[in-house]
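Sharing a chain and its predicted structure for anyone who wants a worked example. Both blocks are below, sequence first, tokens second.
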Amino acid sequence: MKLQAGKNVVAVCGKGGVGKTVLTALMTKAIVESKRGGRFLVVDADPALGLPGTLGIRSSVSIGQVRESIIDAAKDGSNEDRSEIAGRVDYMVMESLVETADFAFLAMGRTETRGCYCSVNEILRESLALLSEAFDTILIDGEAGLEQINRQVVGNLDTLIILTDASARSRRSVEHIVRLVNEDHVIDCRRVGVVVNRTKRDNQMLLDSLAGIGIEVFGTLPEDDNIARYDMSGRPLLDLPSDSPAVVAARTIVESHVLG
């Protein structure tokens, strides 16, 4: 999904279990309530597909399933030419898009079939690029690394947000991702920052260690009992009170580093 100039493209990444999906949901809430995101697309690029529930969205057909369907048709001897396949892919991609009153949602899903299906992948990328042209703001909930985002979703970002917590393993993940961006150039990105999740009052040592990596700290997300309660009851995080501590923190991050 190579995006057009003028779009605001933001991705969230970090090691597994650090809370990326929660942060993405909170940022979605903040962008919607700001009314400054324009036409807004949320992309779940994590194969675990945990984001729909936090947004109150029922499971949808994923892009991975679209790919599998096209490959299965080819295996069954379909003799469609490229234009016919492209037309079918465009239709299926649009069918995969979930439209809510405030934003659109797209699940990338998992690709099961291995092997070289370059023509299918190329048609799919073209279809996603065409779809992306309709949106002003795109927010991506990514995997732990950047490779999957780069391969399937987007070739350039305005802002990459790396989520971490107080663990040494999570900080090492931050260092790894920063190296992928700055040295290996896995993805083109205008700005990179870190958000610290589940912070306690005394977190200055952690913030100092992150500053030592040479990365900007965009903000912190405090422990918020409301999130655990909503998760346990299956309630969408979009319904959290506007004064809930994590919601307030996410709003500040969005206003300063996403929409600012």
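Comments welcome. Residues 20-34 form the longest helix (15 residues).
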